[in-house]
Amino acid sequence: MPDLHNVETNLAFTCSYEKDHLPALDPEAGQLYRYARWLRKNQIEKEDPLRYPQMERYYRIATAYGHYKANLDLRDMIGRGTAKSDDPVKETLDLTQELIDRGIPGGYYDMGRYIKAGYGVKQDEELANRYYRKAADMGSPEAQYLVGGKLTGLTIAQPVPFAIGNQMLKCAAEQGHATAALEYANQLQFEKKFAEAVKFFQLSTKWGDETAAYNLENGFGSIPTENKQSIDLGLKQDDERSRRYKIISGILSDYSYAHPSVPELDEIVPLPPAKLPHWNGKIKWLEDFKANVAPEKPSEELMKKLATAKGLDPATGRPKAKAGEAGKTAAATPAPSKTSDRLPLGSKVASGQPCPETGLWQCTHPQATPRQLSLMAGQTMPAVLVPNQRSVWQKLKGEPDQLAIDSEWELVQLG
């Protein structure tokens, strides 16, 4: 259990940035991570079950070298059943504890999530909140958004926690948390602090929120009298600025599944009084996304060197069997069943049920993510994500663009 005695018992909050608590990343591990992320990007566009073992291999070796982002993506794969693990729950908690032991803010935030859900540990909401607060104080934007939302949710009738909650949202927004920036801007707009609200709508758009861009589109547009209270940002009508925000909002909405961003936003549509520069209607993220240029692929020599130094199998990234264990494992493993004794193709199982057969399973929901997973017998059949068609009001409230639902899985290939 980490030492949490330094967590302040009162609500006072000082903004801290996560980057100030993160160690430098090993450059070779970074190369592995970038290539794994490129594979993941292509998996979003067109899922290929054969990519998962490749991704796992790169993530595992990078994680062994302290790459905290690879650690997060590896845990995500384990949780989805796309990376093999002898004990998914234990490995997930162990990987998270590694981050905590190194003082990485995201480790505290993620452990808080597991404790709140009772994932492999005793469910304890109070302890989870202590982890969240520790993470927020250390600069985790996700934790700042979560704790800030809890405090602002106590209503403005409690001014001290409400103000501190907004401080947390502001801090998260400044670090790139698009939804925190949107919600903070909404509050500023409600308080008629228009200049500051516009600044944070701009930040939220930069970080990739289509609703913030939509608000600026309307704010610079022609505002009907009946909608003035909800739309007004104290801006002078500017049709060209409104048009540019409309284009950007559309791109961010269309590609929300891939987490787009517009870091060059101030060069496309700077806030007044700056004059508008020429713009060709393109954003760099989308151009790069469409070009899909692969980063340098790590050589097999590098993979072998890195894996061997950490006692990992270069082919899988998983730990090598200790001396004598391989023979024991082989002796203890029964001979494979004949194909005729195995579950027939086309068999269906619902989410939440144990997987009855190792192989490739396909979700029957046409819009589900993921559509196909390689699962091992005994794993829990997962829930899936489906698009959530949100109204503008639901977007303003920050409702998610995807929903987790139970579904049915069909066996399409034996493992």
From TrEMBL:
Which SUPFAM superfamilies does the entry link to? HCP-like
Residues in domain DUF6396?
212-319
| InterPro entries associated with the record | DUF6396, Sel1-like, Sel1_AlgK, TPR-like_helical_dom_sf
Q: Where is the composition biased (Low complexity)?
A: 324-338
Give the region (Disordered) as residue ranges.
309-351
Spell out the PANTHER family in the cross-references. ERAD-ASSOCIATED E3 UBIQUITIN-PROTEIN LIGASE COMPONENT HRD3, SEL-1-LIKE PROTEIN
Name-wise, this protein is: DUF6396 domain-containing protein
Organism, scientific name: Paludibacterium purpuratum
